[in-house]
Amino acid sequence: MNEGEANRLVTTSGHIHVDQGHILEEIDDAVQSLNAFEGRIKNELNNTGSKSQNEGEHEDEPSSKRRNITQCEQSLTPIAESTLRQYHEAKSRVRDFYKEQHENQTVSYNLQARINYKTRIRARMTIWDALCKLSKLIDDSDPDTELSQIDHALQTAEAIRADGKPRWMQLVGLIHDLGKILYFFESEGQWDVVGDTFPVGCKFSDAIIFHEFFEANPDSRHPIYSQELGIYEKNCGLDSVMISWGHDEYMYYIAKGQSTLKEEALAMIRYHSFYPWHRENAYRYLMNENDYRMLKAVQEFNQYDLYSKQNEKIIKSDELKLYYMELIDEYFPKKIIEF
Prior knowledge:
Elements: H1 3-9, H2 21-56, H3 72-75, H4 81-104, H5 107-119, E1 124-125, H6 127-136, H7 149-162, H8 167-175, H9 247-258, H10 263-271, H11 275-278, H12 289-307, H13 318-331, E2 337-338
Antiparallel strand pairs: 1-2
Helix pairs in contact: 2-4, 7-8, 7-12, 8-10, 8-13, 9-10, 10-12
């Protein structure tokens, strides 16, 4: 992609946020930090509860050696001070983000977003160029900016590769967040790009983070959309469910229509931010048998998405770039992708 093509990429849609690209990454990193933090707390609580129950079975054991669930905070794995600091600093920003997201992710908006996706082409370029372009649009000079998108993509992919996972899963690690490029095309802000996802068209689950903010969403009072099943049928399958619009849905549609990636790969892309489902066990009543198989795949992938981030960039050597460009071409045979 030459400089003229790159400039056209960010000047055709009229929705330009170049000066705020770093904020998108800060919001997403804060959200992911919150998810990781809560996940660790939940795991520790579960582990502590299990140990307490098992130890309670040995009545001859002195009570002083038994753990009580109220002492869970003492059994937590030490968390780096920097992690706690980022969590607390991000808290109000994350709350503000979710307030806006929960108020605006309506059925009406989601229908229009899908119409927009299907009726226009925003850019034509390779997957690698898109990764590079997304990173370049972020203001890397901002002192508070985390690693760029391509660095996180490579970290995730390399972690999956190091564990000997199949090539298709390595590619998912590389492209799972590529849909964030939507922010520079036609997004309304940040709320329709990043953050946890959830179904629209049925009752908003209590398991969704900051559930209270749905009170301002008109769908929460709709006679159909506010019902548990809403517009869906029991066990209809998540393929039939409209998930809140954002980078996951956007990239899922691109990969589904323009790649040869298998079903599990598409599920990882589409559902990796669907935390109410894959971590909180919500929306089971919408699942069919195949969704349980996809759930295992998404949970396997999620550990690499959340916990692969490092403090240092992965050096994008020619060898590493060549490896992933060949991997991309293997599953995206047309090479030039319509975004």
